[in-house]
Amino acid sequence: LNRRLDGLGTTIFARMTALAAETGAINLGQGFPDTDGPEAVREAAVRALRSGHGNQYPPGPGIPELRQAVAEHQSRFHGLHWDPDSEVLVTAGATEALAAALLALLEPGDEVIAFEPYYDSYTAGIAMAGAVRVPLTLRAPDFRPDLDALRAKVTDRTRMLLLNSPHNPTGMVLSRAEAEAIAELAVERDLLVVTDEVYEHLVFDGEHVPFVSLPGMRDRTVSISSAGKTFSFTGWKVGWVTAAPHLIAAVRTTKQFLTYVSAGPFQYAVAEALRLPDAYFTGLREELRAKRDLLSAGLRDAGFTVHPSAGTYFVTTDIAALGEKDGVAFCLALPERCGVVAVPNAVFHDDEAAGRTQVRFAFCKRPEVLSEAVERLRLLT
Ligand code: PMP
Ligand code: GLN
After folding, report:
1. ipTM score assigned to the predicted complex
2. Using a 6 Å CB cutoff, which residues line ligand 1?
3. What is the per-residue pLDDT across 303-341, written as a single tens digit (0 to 9) for each?
4. SUPFAM superfamilies in the record, alphabetically (predicted)?
5. How many other β-carbons are positioned within 10 Å of the β-carbon of residue 85?
6. For a designed S-S bond to 339, which of 25, 38, 70, 227 qualifies (C-beta 3.0 to 4.6 A apart)?
7. Ligand 1, atom 15: nearest CA belongs to which residue?
8. Measuring from atom 7 of ligand 1, which residue has the nearest CA?
9. Which of 273, 308, 334 is the last residue of a domain?
10. CA torsion sign, 316 to 322 to 323 to 327?
11. Residues 88 and 213 in one domain
12. Where in the sequence is the domain holding 156, given as residue range(s)?
């Protein structure tokens, strides 16, 4: 492995899911739902496969039906208007979109400011591009970004802000005022913005503000989303990028040589999914909200300090109140101790001290699974 990728052996999610499989523990580590998305969407994929739609290379930028559906979805929910031909690009999940955007837009040595704890592929993508990550640490209990600190981190070498709201793993959702302040800074210092909004439909408190909707952002923002979270098909790996034509052209160039294309039949199914009625999207959010509440209350009862999560699949806890000092050691021992898998936030930090006693639990699981996990976690005290 080359030096750029030092320390990036196997992802924490793969490690923790393997540990869950080995020990038979309940997996509240990796964020994937334990029930599939809508039957009609699955059937649409089967229909596409059977009728040979997408079984051979689809067009490089994605099938026109899906690009059109992405544009319509963004218009319906966010009032944003994109040209499906020049401003929408289909990718192999948000993961490829992120890698393609970072590889396309960064020069070696460029600085990228990102919130830490970071979603794991950000560090890898920045490293693969030969760029330098600069953390803006989100601190408990509310994980709000310190906007003065952000301003102070911008240097002449800063090229990009890499944003994520709703934020994995903390569940922080940027307020409109915070997003506006960040957008002003981006204009003032002429920064590119890559914004990961895969949890756009999973905001339980507050509102989702698409970053590109803010003044001055249209020509400098690459927005990323994915069908994984919105339709509960994380294995399909259908994501998309929306941006101004010059940015899409850049990201398309790298995407061509990473995968060229992906998931033909699933693209037809996701095009149908994006056209589901509003009630589907509201229903998904309300279901996840109930699960967030169930797990958060249970963890609190079991003695964890629970930091409120306003969005995503995740809630971050603190284990100091349980007399624990180290989240990594705690998570490695947890399956043996009580049959539950969780993820230590420390692995998403450069400033490990900031996340040392924080542990992330995923609540995108069936209520009975969450209840059983809580029963097991109560054995800790
Ligand atoms: N960004 C964030 C913040 C995530 O939590 C995830 C995990 N789903 C991804 C990107 C990757 O999404 P995908 O599975 O579509 O590649
Ligand atoms: N996004 C998921 C999480 O945060 C994991 C996806 C993956 O394993 N790459 O748990």
Report:
1. 0.97
2. 31, 93-95, 119, 164, 168, 196, 198, 226, 228-229, 234, 239
3. 999 999 999 999 999 999 999 999 999 999 999 999 999
4. PLP-dependent transferases (SSF53383)
5. 13
6. 25
7. 93
8. 31
9. 273
10. negative
11. yes
12. 39-273
